[in-house]
Amino acid sequence: MRRIHACLSAPLVLVCSLGHAQDILPQTVITATRAPTAIEDVPAGVTVIDRAIIEERGYTTLVDALSAVPGLHVVQSGGPGSQTSLFVRGGDSNQVLVLRDGVPINDPSSPSGAFDFGNDRLEDVERIEIVRGPMSGAYGTGAIMGVVNMISRQGSGDPHGSAEAERVSGPGAAGRATYGGRNGPVDYQMSLDGTTNAGYDPTPQRMVGIYNSTSEPFSSAAGSINLGINPDANTRIGLFVRGTNSFNSLNDDGYPVYDNAMGAAHVNTLFGRLSATTKLLDVWQTTVSLAGNQADRRYSNPLDPNDPNMAFEESRYHARRGGLQWNNIVTLPASDALSAATLTFGYEHIADSANTRVNNASFGYPYQDSVNSSSRTNAGWLGLQGTLYGILDVSMQVRDDSVSQSGNVGTWRAGAVVTLPELYSRIHA
Fold it and tell me: What is the 3-state secondary structure (H, E, C) of 52-100?
């Protein structure tokens, strides 16, 4: 096998080549254009982490999987389960949109709207698609720097299952179990995943008089079920439900420095999606889905009489998101000039609400605040992609978002990939 590499960068163009003396089947991605597209034909930085890679490399959390992806910077504020942010190509963490099966799941009660990557586990994930770069033309202003889409596992084949348990450092234990398959028109996939850890004291032992060797435990559990009914080869009606629960102790040294180890964070989430997908006349695939996401976060820190900071907290954050999506992929007729052409269009309605109750104190001075807020977003998008004369792959997307709090926002994106087979090269723009 002969392989040739070359790379040349310019302000708007990146030229990279990768040649093979034999043909291989291209890997496809859906997130980048909302239609199945070969990665090599996508004018964006794309990484796919499929189930085989997850199991081969032993990834158990979303943090594990994303930490090794080029162009991503994962920042964790503490040990397992602590607040974790993702920065793509130097952008802010709230400029990355996180999807579950194409549905936005960023937390509306977060002040910045950023997603906390610290608690998600991977036993029910079939693949993770990461698109680096501006994707607002397809997904709105929340995707300025990129998109992370977690696609859930579906049952197939004869009934089969697996279970495993392990002891981990900390000390702690972790376990996973799955069961799935297909029986006639019904497919099913169930997953359980959890870990618990006694933790350690992050306060350095050199801090004499403050270090108290108090461990800070962590536990996390996730369970999901994915059911589908397939009345014919072109139609699937699916129901996916997933719940998570996590607990981690927080180390708050304060100022003056004092090792108050009684702080804790409790996070519970619930996600559900009901969808129906069918293909009409072998050229038009349409999907209608109704989804809901709920997140409850509680931060507590009982008053320690020995704490010179007199720190106290009992705060709660409750968020709800409901959404309706209508996605369409239409295969266009091929001609001598245009091939592999698809038209994508759709509509999305998102209803967000956030209720927060902040109650804390420091040095005896209390601080209380509450927020009750909601917003509605209606969006429509249109996309077109195809190959011109067998060498030029083009894609274009345009989207309009109408937000109840801020009015209309229009975004667009255009890209092209030129194939130079003689040079084993592609030019991305």
Answer: HHHHHHCCCEHHHHHHCCCCEEEEECCCCCCCEEEEECCCCHHHEEEEE
CA angle 89, 126, 280 (to 5 degrees): 100
DSSP state of 422: G
Q: Model confidence over 340-385: pLDDT tens digits?
A: 899 999 999 999 999 999 999 988 899 999 989 999 999 999 999 9
Determine the Cα–Cα distance for residues 105 and 114; give it in Å rounded to an integer. 10
Residues 282-307 as b or e (16 or more Cβ within 10 Å = b): eeebbbbbebbbbbbbbbbbeebeeb
Q: Are 346 and 327 in contact (CB under 8 A)?
A: yes
- Note the pLDDT tens digit of each residue in 93-142: 888 999 999 999 988 888 777 888 888 889 999 999 999 988 989 998 88
- What span, in angstroms and rounded, lies between the C-alpha atoms of 402 and 18? 42
Strand partners, 312: 361
pTM equals 0.88
